[in-house]
Write a structure and sequence with these properties.
Rossmann fold; alpha/beta; 2 domains; globular; 5-stranded mixed sheet; single chain
Length: 407
C-alpha cells in the first residue's frame, strides 16, 4: 500500500484502475473531466488494459455502459450535473436491464442560474431511477467506495448499477492523502466480474426486461428491482466489514460521529460533513452534547441504521445541500418519512437548507443551527425550515439588483 496526495477526481480514477475495468464510455463535463483525462493517459501509456470510447453525449454514454455491462464486462463511467440530467432517460432504462456497473457523479448545482460549484440536486434527481447511491466525504472514501460499489453492483442478490457521488470542486479538486492499496489485495476483495450473474431465476429477486406489455408483468419486474435494492442494505454492511479486515478501513451504511452520548445531532451528507465534524468538536469543547450522523448509502435508504443511531436523541438538525422547489430539503423529507411513527425517534427534526451552488457553511452557522434546534427541543416545537443566508449576502444581491436596474 502506498500513500500519495490525490484529488477526489484522481482518487476516482485510481478506484477505476484498481477495479481493472474493461470498458469506459466517456463524455467530458466540468468538474468531472479530470477523471477521464487521467484514465486516458494510463491507457495511452499501456499502463491499464481498458477500452475507452468517447461518445457524443451522456445519453449515449450511459446507453453504451449499460449495454456493455449486460454482456458481462466490467464497466465504469462518470458525469456531472447537467450531464446526469441529459442521460436521465437511460438511467431508468439500464437499471431496468439490471446491468451492474459504476457511474461516478461529481455533483454540481443545476441551471438556472448556472454554477460550476456543488450541491446535491443533480444526484438526488436520480434517487428513484433504480441506481443505488453511495455518497463520499473524503478522497479516500472516493477510491474505496468505487471498489465497494463494484462488489455491491455485481452481487447476484443485487445486480443493479451504482452511482458513487462526490462534491465538485470542494472534493473533486482538493488534494488529500490517500492510501492506494496493492492490486493483489484488491483482487482478494473484488474478484473478476462473473458474467454468470446475468441470468433469469424466478425464485430470486433477479430480473431483466426490455419490452414488457401489461401492468401485471411490469409491476413484477419493477418490484423485483425494488427487492434487489433492499438486499443491498445488509450486503453493504457485510462487504464494508470485509473491506475493513483487508484494508483496515471499515464502512457502514450510516456513519455516526460522537453520537453515542449526544442529545442533539447534525444530519448531512457529502464533503461538507467534514465541516460538521469540526463543528461537533468545537461544540463538545463548549460543553454541548452533540454529534453527527451521515448517510453513506442513500439508495436504498438505510432506515433501520438511522433508527439505531438516532434512537433516544432529543433532536436532529438536518442540513440539506439541495432544495426541492415547493417541497423543501430532500434528505429532511426522506428522514422524516422513515422515522414517522417509530418508537424512540427524535421528537424534533429541524430543517436547514445550506450549501446551494457551493455556498460555504461557516462554523458560526453550525453553532446557530445547534442553538435553534436546542431551543426548539426545550420549547417542544419544531422550528420552521430555514435557509442559511447572511445579511451580507443579501446586501450583495441587492447591490447586483441595483446595478441591473431592478428595484
Amino acid at each position: 500500500m502506498s500513500r500519495t496526495l490525490l484529488t477526489g477526481n484522481g482518487a476516482a480514477a485510481w478506484g477505476m484502475r484498481l477495479a481493472e475495468v474493461d470498458y469506459l464510455p466517456a463524455f467530458p463535463i466540468t468538474p468531472q473531466t479530470e477523471i477521464i483525462e487521467t484514465v486516458a493517459k494510463w491507457i495511452d501509456k499501456d499502463e491499464i488494459d481498458c477500452r475507452m470510447v468517447t461518445l457524443e453525449s451522456e445519453h449515449s454514454m450511459i446507453t453504451a455502459a449499460g449495454a456493455a455491462a449486460a454482456t458481462g464486462v466490467r464497466v465504469f463511467t462518470a458525469t456531472s450535473s447537467q450531464g446526469l440530467l441529459y442521460g436521465m432517460e437511460m438511467l431508468y432504462t439500464v437499471a431496468g436491464w439490471r446491468a451492474p456497473f459504476v457511474l461516478v457523479n461529481v455533483s454540481r448545482g443545476l441551471s438556472s442560474p448556472i454554477t460550476l460549484e456543488p450541491d446535491h440536486n443533480d444526484i438526488l434527481a436520480a434517487r428513484d431511477s433504480g441506481f443505488l447511491q453511495i455518497h463520499c466525504a473524503t478522497c479516500q472514501e472516493v477510491l474505496d467506495s468505487i471498489l465497494l460499489a463494484y462488489r455491491l453492483a455485481e452481487d447476484g442478490r443485487v445486480r443493479l448499477p451504482v452511482i458513487v457521488n462526490l462534491d465538485g470542486f470542494y472534493l473533486s479538486f482538493t488534494r488529500e492523502p490517500v492510501d492506494i492499496p496493492e492490486l493483489a489485495a484488491v483482487s482478494r476483495f473484488l474478484p473478476p466480474f462473473d458474467p454468470e450473474n446475468i441470468r433469469f431465476k424466478a425464485s430470486e429477486p433477479v430480473s431483466q426486461a426490455v419490452a414488457v406489455l401489461g401492468g401485471g408483468p411490469y409491476s413484477y419486474f419493477r418490484y423485483q428491482s425494488h427487492l434487489a435494492a433492499l438486499n443491498a442494505v445488509s450486503i453493504f454492511d457485510d462487504i464494508g466489514s470485509e473491506f475493513g479486515r483487508i484494508f483496515g478501513r471499515t464502512y457502514e451504511a450510516v456513519e455516526a460521529y460522537r453520537a453515542d452520548d449526544a442529545e442533539l445531532v447534525f444530519v448531512m451528507m457529502g464533503s461538507f460533513a467534514t465541516k460538521a465534524k469540526d463543528a461537533v468538536d468545537r461544540l463538545r469543547e463548549a460543553g454541548q452534547a452533540i454529534g453527527l450522523v451521515r448517510p453513506r448509502l442513500l439508495r436504498p435508504f438505510p432506515s433501520a441504521a438511522f433508527m439505531r443511531v438516532l434512537a433516544g436523541k432529543k433532536g436532529a438538525a438536518v442540513i440539506d445541500q439541495n432544495l426541492s422547489a415547493g417541497g423543501g430539503g430532500i434528505l429532511h423529507g426522506e428522514l422524516a418519512a422513515a422515522l414517522y411513527g417509530q418508537p424512540n425517534a427524535p421528537n424534533i427534526l429541524a430543517s436547514f437548507i445550506g450549501g446551494l451552488g457551493g455556498r460555504d457553511i461557516g462554523p458560526e452557522e453550525f453553532f446557530e443551527m445547534a442553538a435553534v434546534t436546542r431551543k426548539a427541543v426545550d420549547e417542544g416545537r419544531t422550528p420552521p425550515p430555514r435557509l442559511l443566508y447572511t445579511e451580507g449576502e443579501l446586501r450583495e444581491v441587492r447591490t447586483l439588483q441595483k446595478i441591473a436596474g431592478i428595484t
